[in-house]
């Protein structure tokens, strides 16, 4: 694994004389990298979710190979994943930013795949204790994934395309949920048995890890086969420079940044509400509305499927509005984030007043709530890269660690408030509390959030670059291509040369 101290990014796009020219090709290297990132995230979510289906079959006494696990033991195995998941968020971001994210991503998904393959053996020879150990290890591996993805997106995605790429990659988790829920149920009920759930997704994840190691790249500078105009478009949009100085994360500046704390608050509120929607609403519908949504595969997958489909028009419209100057980046982020949090809050309030005979209405409200939540990927979820392209990974690790603590606390608070699962009044209390948390997070981001690159994003680089010359990133040289072969007019050529000159002048200062 090569150290990444030699390559840093300086946010100089605003200082360019001309806007970056978008390549004409519809499918470029950045799109291939996004597809690979999405595939890895899909595998991660599938390995996380398949356990919730398989554990039911593993505890079914009518099956030839079953275990005497009560409900508390099953919940212990399901929750053990998050014990490890929370621990590696911040370290994962720091390692990805300092030593490189590409190889770490492949290793994380591959090792998680191996641990998933080992679960059937662990259950037979180590009972639930060894299964918990495997799940903790899976959590440790997957905890580094969100900061890794943010690190790579910050290097690969031009500013005008940030919303759609972020939504597309992270929506792989929604697709993974849908596919895993359906396929795991079919596999567990087939002659192959419940162990096939783990063998299938573990093997698929290992296959993806091999593909990623072969085709994944750390940055455009390391992709020797991509078109020169696409690389120039990405790097001139982001303002990439090269320096040999070591890189340190400015934690003091991060921890004293008001926009960072606004981002953390809104991400925590979203995580609380989202996991309340997905983990406890089925219980409410079962106990109060007498509708077992979990045993209806199509209905249980419908919220994820609708959210995934809605991610495309929402992200495309968000980026289009920014690119065409119909909305500023700040306005777009704030509108998307407010909608993505306030809409589910209103849905939760409405759900508390649905009658016992209105099951379909309740399902419709749940689908709308989860679907509306997808807008946050064009809101605060892309904001880490807005605030600090250089430290998007550590920043994501910091906020996501806190958010996942909230997702763990949400079901515990629900259990404390709702003593009687059939009591509508108690459920309304937790719904109103969650709606208030949603609105508080959206309001905090609206008042204190920012899309401006923070001064500490470039501080380390500016200090390290004093007295040395920095250029556009090119650690692994690409074959020289005459600029006249790429840009047909003298004016376009002058724009490119002028942009490079502005970057070099800015760094030398």
The helix content, as a percent range, equals 55-70%
Task: Decide which structural class fits the backbone.
Answer: mainly alpha
CATH fold name of the largest domain: Growth Hormone, Chain: A
- Number of spatially distinct domains: 2
Q: Please give the oligomerization state of what you see.
A: single chain
Overall geometric form:
globular
Would you kindly provide a written description of the structure presented here, covering whatever features stand out?
May be an inorganic phosphate cotransporter. The chain crosses the membrane at residues 34-56, 76-96, 103-122, 198-216, 334-354, 360-379, 391-410, 430-453. GO terms for molecular function: symporter activity. InterPro entries: MFS, MFS_dom, MFS_Na/Anion_cotransporter, MFS_trans_sf. It is a single chain. The chain has 509 residues and is mainly alpha-helical. The chain folds into 2 domains: 29-230, Up-down Bundle (Growth Hormone, Chain: A); 258-453, MFS general substrate transporter like domains (Growth Hormone, Chain: A), CATH 1.20.1250.20. A two-stranded antiparallel sheet has the order 1-2. It has 20 helices and 2 strands. Helices cover 70% and strands 1% of the residues. The protein has helices at residues 29-58, 71-87, 89-99, 102-142, 145-156, 162-170, 172-188, 195-215, 228-238, 251-255, 258-287, 297-323, 329-351, 359-372, 383-387, 392-417, 424-448, 456-464, 483-486, 490-508; strands spanning 7-9, 240-242. Residues 1-15, 463-497 and 500-504 have low confidence and may be disordered. The longest helix has 41 residues, at 102-142.
